[in-house]
Write a structure and sequence with these properties.
The chain has 235 residues and is an alpha+beta fold. It has one domain. It has 5 helices and 7 strands, in the order H-E-H-H-H-E-E-E-E-H-E-E. It has helices at 2-39, 52-67, 70-74, 83-94, 148-151; strands at residues 44-48, 102-106, 113-120, 126-133, 139-141, 186-187, 198-199. The longest helix is centred in the N-terminal third of the chain and has 38 residues, at 2-39. The termini are far apart. Residues 144-156 have a biased composition (Low complexity). Residues 206-215 have a biased composition (Pro residues). This is Lipoprotein. Residues 139-235 are annotated as: Disordered.
Length: 235
């Protein structure tokens, strides 16, 4: 009986060791894949304030574009609804350009999500993308542009050169580059509007209670207007 118990203990110990080895192999495989991807592609030039998660996600996105790998790009999506169609649109529009030098401008901070503008030196194209944490707590991409026209639209709010706005949403002027800093929106306090409906005139940096969940809308502003305006005023 003692011998049987000893063998059982050894078997359990051996299983634990084997499990540890398998876990180690899995980690090593992921590291090897990343290193292989890194060495097989042009280095991504980075401007702004990326987090570890947003940087790795954007790197993988650019690599998949350069490879023409729509399936691999779709696999990075945080939501599958339009991932395949969007990935195909992006690969068709930016795949060739991604083979050359690419600069990524990371806006504001990236703790849970981050807007990034890609500058493709080879073609002169620019593309706004969003990296964020999905429901499974893993970083991925927002792929929600099944319309080719929307997928290839140039972000009109983005400066012509990376870092032109200081990689801050508050650095994006309302009337074009070099304009005065935007002002706060005004409250309409008329008697018929006691709930303080806003007359949006200018974008202002968010205060903590009403900070938006993301720096920009997907489509971006029109006529050099800021990317978003608050629908509630800071108290």
């Amino acid at each position: 009986m003692a011998r049987k118990t000893r063998l059982t203990g050894l078997a359990l110990a051996g299983g634990a060791v084997a499990g540890g080895l398998l876990t180690g192999c899995s980690s090593d495989d992921a590291s090897l894949t990343y290193q292989t991807d890194y060495s097989n592609h042009q280095p991504l030039r980075v401007v702004g304030y990326p987090s570890t998660g947003s940087l790795e996600t954007v790197q993988k996105a650019v690599w998949r574009l350069a490879d023409g790998d729509a399936d691999g790009l779709a696999a990075l999506a945080v939501d599958d609804a339009h991932a395949d169609a969007t990935a195909r649109n992006w690969v068709k529009a930016f795949g060739a350009a991604a083979e050359g030098d690419v600069t990524a401008d990371f806006y504001d901070e990236g703790s849970v999500r981050q807007v990034v503008v890609l500058y493709f030196a080879k073609s002169g194209q620019t593309k706004e993308i969003e990296a964020r944490i999905g429901e499974d707590d893993s970083w991925g991409l927002t792929l929600a542009e099944p319309d080719p026209a929307k997928a290839t639209a140039k972000p009109t709010w983005a400066p012509p050169e990376p870092g032109g706005s200081g990689s801050r949403t508050s650095g994006i002027p309302t009337g074009g580059l070099g304009s005065p800093a935007p002002q706060r929106p005004s409250r309409d306090r008329t008697p018929n509007n006691r709930r303080a409906v806003l007359r949006i005139t200018r974008w202002h940096p968010p205060c903590a209670p009403c900070a938006p969940p993301r720096p920009f809308t997907t489509e971006g502003p029109r006529n050099h207007e800021p990317a978003h305006a608050f629908l509630q005023a800071c108290s």
